TrEMBL record:
Catalyzes the reversible isomerization of glucose-6-phosphate to fructose-6-phosphate. The gene is pgi. Belongs to the GPI family. It holds the Pfam family PGI. It comes from Inmirania thermothiophila. This is Glucose-6-phosphate isomerase.
Amino acid sequence: MSETRLGWPEWQALEAHARAVRQLHLRRLFEEDPGRFERLSFRFDDLLLDLSKNLVTDETLRLLLRLAERADVPGWIARMFAGERINHTEGRAVLHVALRNRSGRPIRVDGEDVMPRVEAVLARMRAFSEAVRTGAWRGHTGRRITDVVNLGIGGSDLGPRMVCRALRPWGGPLRVHFVANVDGADLADTLAGLDPERTLFIVASKSFTTQETLTNARSARAWLLERLADEAAVARHFVAVSTHREAVAAFGIDPANMFEFWDWVGGRFSLWSAIGLPIALYVGMDRFEALLAGAHEMDEHFRTAPLGANLPVLLALVGVWYVDFLGAETQAVLPYDQRLERLPAYLQQAEMESNGKSVDRAGRRVGWHTCPVVWGEPGTNGQHAFFQLLHQGTRLVPCDFLLAAEGGDPYPEHHRILVANALAQAEALMRGRTEAEARAELEAAGLSGEALERLLPHKVFPGNRPSTFILYRRLDPRTLGRLIALYEHKIFVQGVIWDVNAFDQWGVELGKQLASAILPELEGGATGAHDASTVGLMQHWRNLVGG
Ligand SMILES: O=P(O)(O)OC[C@H]1O[C@H](O)[C@H](O)[C@@H](O)[C@@H]1O
């Protein structure tokens, strides 16, 4: 087991400090310290990161920053931007920052500047997306394309899907659909309303070996050919996004219709690459580039700001604090922004596939906790579902609130209600309601005696429940780019502190292997060696389907 970090004086200082912090209450910290918000909230342009409702003091941040120094966060940031192969288990550099590098500076991998290749693919994306959007690119029968279907899963789905949803006000004239699941219902339900003569498929897969995506692509091609009855139609209705030219060709998509990216782009960090093609098709290339520009601004901040004023670093450290020193097991993401409804799902992959690891970079078992379970729903919907637990449950659940100052809709009254709810929920979590306050309220409502006493404990809110509040002017392409990059770099910093490789994902392999062993058995092959439960389930399945 890797004991190293636990033995660091910086780690031990935080453990000792956590014992003291457990005695504090946020309500009192605010009452005693009028400067708390000013000192513990941080700005990047219009974006405000308010950490003051977290269970931290100035001392906590000081100690966490010492931990970051000890873990060499600045060195790791430099190594990432320098194109070092920091994804050591796959021997790859990690350069999603190159995909949005607007600085004019070269970024090199093994001495080769990758920027000309990045620029070339961006230029192709522009030409193609403009051709489809203006109708210059037509379907096989000469009809304009009206619908785009992205066939991809994981990193080849979640990012573009989340961004297209977030940027709906800029969307059109094309409609964009996403099919990820190998469950045929996903494809069938999507194709049901579509006209093959007017539909363009993007087969998006970094590896071009992913079972779900290739299965969906084969069925989509069959659907197209069934109706257009001409192999030549595929070239006008299928494009691919991948790092594997040969696999794309082997599948039957002309490499001329392929948009390339590279092995130094991690799947879950790939929406900035050609994987973002559905975004460009939906909102136009100028907006896609504004998204890149926003991310680049955050990259520059991350690369150059001192740790103590560095938003991704601070966000990461507060997360580490809860997981490793205060015992939190989960992290809630609560966008008070309906258009960010897919953000929690996106962050589930980004965070949990990156840092859900239990061996350190040297392969030793870690002696500390790593990534929490990330979950969430948009507000105000969540308030009417799981907020009960947040307010009165037994678990410590740190929450991230995200909110735009201005809504992008024609209903200003709605937006004020949304803002009021977000502020109120964060305040309620922090303040709680004391027994005396609850009693006074019940008395004011006319209760007394036994009836009051019976109800009283149920009306008390312990408070002291932490949240981070991220407030920005409006959700536009540039702000969205900044927000996503903020979280990406948070994840990287946490990986550094936890000493895990945030950029591999070996944990997804075993299930894939077993599925490919089970599939032929379901198709009538001999049953292999399985545990009694797997055999029993297979048998029951056969009985149900009459096999
Ligand atoms: O883009 P692809 O190669 O098809 O991969 C799609 C997804 O599947 C894999 O199993 C990984 O867990 C993800 O990181 C990846 O994003």
